[in-house]
Design brief:
Layout lengths: L7 E5 L9 H8 L10 E5 L13 E4 L10 H5 L15 E4 L1 H15 L3 H6 L8 E2 L2 E2 L1 H4 L4 E14 L6 H7 L9 H4 L8 H8 L2 E5 L1 H11 L6 H5 L2 H11 E4 L2 E5 L4 H10 L5 E14 L10 E2 L4 E2 L2 H13 L7 H17 L9 H5 L6 H4 L7 E2 L1 E2 L4 H10 L3 H5 L3 E4 L10 E7 L2 E8 L3 E7 L2 E11 L1 H4 L2 H22 L4 E7 L4 H15 L3
Parallel strand pairs: 1-2, 3-4, 20-21
Antiparallel strand pairs: 5-12, 6-14, 7-11, 8-10, 9-10, 13-15, 16-19, 17-18, 19-20
Helix pairs in contact: 9-12
């Protein structure tokens, strides 16, 4: 392909037959820096876990079984990281058919998206955009009063004599020396020449400044080369100990644990600290819609209600049209229109009665407009499960008889109702992120929200994520307990539904929770 070898980097961990020069590791470590001239990287079982290379623009998984099935997503997404914030960027993922199927399956399970949707990103200018509308004023939807857990973190240094110089001086490379090689098979009893050989096993070539660069790179740029050079004398002494010299060149002594030594040097620049937390429960209030953030969305088959139903809801809102007109009233109105047209000699303009009547044939979505849709339309492009759930809820007998309302809260950028979650470790709290519930089923009393059933509808892939499990546990325990205690009654309840359960079972679970939680 007439590609210059200078821009190609081969990188693998090597084996007895195939070994790479040490400088290849330095080249790999510097790929994401302006110093690197490499454009193509040939990897073998590396560059997956923990590799953060934002300048990567494409990956190729061309062979069957290029990587384990559960790693296809992770490997592919290496080139989907944003380099420059808020700039349009492109990436290429080249897959064979088998790997493409694996990626599509994992995207749907874990990210609620697909290869097709990824390929359509950036093409929205060619897609019809659907305007969205707020209905907060029509519904007179109150804000939600609730309590949040507020945690303050205090850092306490628990280490004396924490200067890097003192720590570096205390590092003893011999502690990382593999003495097992010397003592095995009685080698320690051999002559001095043999003992010297087993104490010095020449490895890859190196030099002092490359070694410092690797240490700096391993700190994720929290320790610069300038920081290390302030202690050049101390570090040079360690370097001389862990390397061997031959023909005026230095080589790593492979009997040392170099990773451990580099880690100890990096730790020398950091003080040991403890975190103490102080927690308090504070009142909060949230609106379910931040109107200024409500924007148009691309037209898709998971908008609910449909474009036509949205227009009808807006029209009946504006005209304050009743949805309870019976057929007798419709016939009376039709006869008046018919008579007026005939008296004016315009009998041929009289519409068919069934056609006239159709404007009063409201769909379940339109009929439920007093109980949902605080904005129009909801966008369920990520989850058909959520769409089906809402369509079924608005027809439930217990939901309608109790005059409940349900609102989709899953678009985190347009809702205020987001909850800070924490995991308790010992006596302290560790923050585990902001949680945005999917649905809120509410009951009003005296123009205020008196009860809130938080419903989480989750795909099986997401349900197993560690962060979600921690947030779910916080909601089911700390959040419910502190809020219900503060309000003096059971104002909040939490219900988790998973899409791999039978849908009827999920509805039965919801119905049972409504009956138990909202008794009046």
């Amino acid at each position: 392909m007439k590609i210059s070898p200078d821009v190609i980097l081969k990188y693998h961990k090597g084996n007895k037959k195939y070994k790479l020069p040490k400088e290849n590791e330095t080249e790999f470590a510097s790929l994401d820096t302006p110093l690197s001239k490499k454009k193509i990287i040939l990897l073998v079982q590396v560059g997956k876990e923990g590799w953060d290379c934002r300048s990567l623009t494409g990956v190729i998984l061309s062979q069957k079984g290029d990587c384990p099935t559960n790693m296809v997503l992770q490997t592919s997404c290496r080139c989907l990281r944003q380099v420059d914030r808020d700039k349009q960027e492109t990436a290429i993922i080249w897959l064979n058919e088998e790997n493409a199927k694996s990626l599509d399956k994992q995207l749907k399970e874990e990210q609620h998206t697909s290869i097709e949707e990824l390929n359509n990103l950036g093409k929205q200018d060619k897609t019809e955009m659907i305007e969205r509308f707020s209905r907060l004023d029509f519904l007179k939807l109150p804000k939600i009063d609730f309590f949040q857990l507020k945690v303050e973190y205090n850092t306490i240094t628990v280490e004396e004599n924490a200067e890097p110089e003192n720590k570096i001086k205390s590092i003893v490379p011999k502690d990382s020396f593999n003495k097992a090689v010397i003592v095995q098979r009685g080698l320690s009893q051999k002559d001095e020449k043999t003992k010297d050989f087993v104490n010095k096993v020449k490895g890859e070539p190196t030099n002092f400044y490359n070694w410092l660069f690797v240490i700096s790179k391993g700190s994720f740029n929290t320790i610069s080369l300038n920081d290390l050079m302030k202690f050049e004398t101390e570090l040079e002494k360690i370097f001389q100990t862990i390397t061997v010299e031959e023909k005026k060149k230095r080589y790593f002594n492979d009997l040392y644990n170099h990773i451990k030594i580099q880690s100890e040097i990096r730790l020398a620049f950091h003080c040991k600290r403890n975190f103490e937390t102080k927690s308090e429960i504070i009142p909060d209030t949230a609106q379910m819609l931040i109107v200024e953030n409500l924007q148009s969305v691309p037209k898709n088959d998971k908008l609910f209600p449909s474009v036509e139903e949205t227009k009808k809801i807006i029209d009946t809102d504006t005209k304050n049209t009743s949805l309870e007109i019976d057929e007798t009233e419709i016939k009376k109105a039709f006869e008046i229109i018919k008579q007026n047209l005939e008296q004016q000699g315009m009998g041929n303009f009289v519409p068919d009665f069934n056609q006239y009547k159709s404007q009063y044939d409201f769909s379940p979505a339109v009929k439920s407009k007093y109980q949902t849709f605080h904005y129009l339309p909801y966008d369920f492009w990520q989850s058909g499960f959520e769409l089906k759930f809402l369509k079924e809820v608005i027809t439930l007998k217990e939901f309608n008889e109790r005059k409940l309302e349900i609102y989709y809260n899953g678009e985190k950028h347009i809702t205020d109702f987001r909850i800070l979650c924490f995991a308790k470790k010992g006596n302290n709290y560790q923050r585990v992120g902001l949680y945005t519930p999917d649905f809120l089923i509410i009951k009003r009393k005296d123009n205020a929200i008196s009860k809130v059933l938080i419903v989480e509808t989750k795909g099986s892939g997401f349900a197993e994520q560690t962060t979600f499990k921690l947030r779910k546990k916080f909601m089911e325990t700390e959040f419910l307990q502190m809020n219900n205690e503060k309000f003096g009654y059971k104002k909040f309840e939490y219900l988790f539904l998973q899409d791999d359960a039978k849908f009827d079972d999920n509805l039965a679970k919801l119905n049972e929770t409504i009956v138990e939680f909202i008794k009046d």
